[in-house]
Amino acid sequence: MEKLLEMKRFLLPALVPVLLLMMLTVAHAGVRAESFSISPYLGGYTFFGREHLETRPVVGVRAGYNFTKNFGTEAVLDYIRTEGRAYSNIGDVDAINYHLDLLYHFMPDGPLVPYLAAGYGGHSREYHGGNDTTRGAFNYGGGIKYFLTDSIALRGDLRHLVMSHDDHTYHNLEYTVGADFLFGGVEQVAAAAQPEPPVAVEEAPIEPVPAAEPAPGHFKYCITLHGEFDIDQAVIRPEYRDEVAKVGDFMKKYPTTTAVIEGHTDNVGSVQHNLDLSQRRAEAVVTYLVENFGIDRSRLSAKGFGLSRPVADNATDEGRQKNRRIEAIIDCVFEVKEIQPPERLCITLVVDFDSGKSNIKEQYRDEIAKVGDYMKQYPTTTAVIEGHTDNVGGYEYNMKLSLERAKATVNYLVQNFGIDPSRLSAKGYGYTRRIAYNKTSEGRAKNRRINAVIDCVISK
After folding, report:
1. Residues 20-74: tens digit of each pLDDT
2. Would you tell me how many other CB atoms lie within 10 Å of the CB of residue 250?
């Protein structure tokens, strides 16, 4: 009974906060293959039989490596300060355990991971009255890990230690609680998702790629033309021609450019009526650019979207006015720093990340410099960095991964180009905005991309 009371006195202060944390925290994760771990712990240590030593606290640390999710190894070192029982004539004793163990994890994908362990090492004692000893010690037992995050777990462990000395066998019991900190390793979702998607799985048809989505090596300059057409008409008013001249002058100056002219309307009228009207107005702008600026018609195309892409609320006059607009999306293949920017610039950065990772490799830093140099040259610009992925892994996984990659790009621009963080924001879209089919490695590579959408508010 005294031993039980002693054990409760040692373990209760450690167990109470651990149990509270387990109740308050939602666990997710598990053991990762090829990961390292550090596990500090404390608990109790009991000496049985002819040991004649008192039960006392133990404190120690484990350093481990997980070869796979199931199998791992740990080097263990712990310390016990005890004393002889009242009738033993033994004084104070300092004891040290050191051993190498093998672990087998059951259900390693967590969050609750039970395991078995066994190993061999040494047990050394320093008696304050002399007669120091060292014994070989075999241990076995098990425990459980409860993952609070991807890399932190609570841990409980019970070990039976068996040692031999002077033709006698001795038995000790160690019971501990602590934390497990994981570093590195193979991401579980990424590792499980490497194989090609099954051929039988049909992807939904790809919607037309938005005109503002640039191809690698190209840039998209977007100019919104604000002006009024007469009701139900597609004739450009004289006062609107200066707006259209923004596009004409730009394309005359840079004869390698091409453009898509998009027409948009408010919601007054039927869907089909607005679709036809927006197409006629886009074509009217194309014709005006050909006839008044000498732009070759092969460099221009018209597309009407009707009321399907509003940028404001159609419930107000102001909102409807904003929705009645023409968008000119100009495709460029030259060095962007040489050009005075229009309203928006879209750049696709060719950045390939390791599977499941968000760190930027050295060879892709020139790509990000396109955005950094441009924003340094035009300090009033702001940008949204968009992260996109293929469909390897689940929805939540890819949304999180795409946001992490966008944030990594933002941080790189801040740290290496001195861009103020207030000028940048990160947005993750996962695999929701694919530009190619994911059933081939080439298609997945196109979908794994970073887009920089730069707002160009230039002081005149």
Report:
1. 444 444 444 789 999 999 999 999 999 988 888 899 999 999 999 999 999 999 9
2. 20
**Is the pTM value of this prediction over 0.70?**
no
**3-class SS string, the chain:** CHHHHHHHHHHHHHHHHHHHHHHHCCCCCCCCCCEEEEEEEEEEEEECHHHCECCEEEEEEEEEEECCCCEEEEEEEEEEEEEECCCCCCCEEEEEEEEEEEEEECCCCCCEEEEEEEEEEEEEEEECCCCCEEEEEEEEEEEEEEECCCCEEEEEEEEEEEEEECCEEEEEEEEEEEEEEEEECCCHHHHHCCCCCCCCCCCCCCCCCCCCCCCCCCEEEEEEECCCECCCCCCECHHHHHHHHHHHHHHHHCCCCEEEEEEECCCCCCHHHHHHHHHHHHHHHHHHHHHHHCCCHHHEEEEECCCCCCCCCCCCHHHHHHHCEEEEEEEECCCHHHCCCCCEEEEEECCCCCCCCCCCCHHHHHHHHHHHHHHHHCCCCEEEEEEECCCCCCHHHHHHHHHHHHHHHHHHHHHHHCCCHHHEEEEECCCCCCCCCCCCHHHHHHHCEEEEEEECCCCC
Lowest mean pLDDT among 74-88, 98-112, 293-307, 372-386: 372-386
Distance CA 7, CA 4 (A): 5
- Domains of the chain plus CATH, in order, are 2-186 (2.40.160.20), 219-332 (3.30.1330.60), 344-460 (3.30.1330.60)
Residue with tokens 């009526």: 273
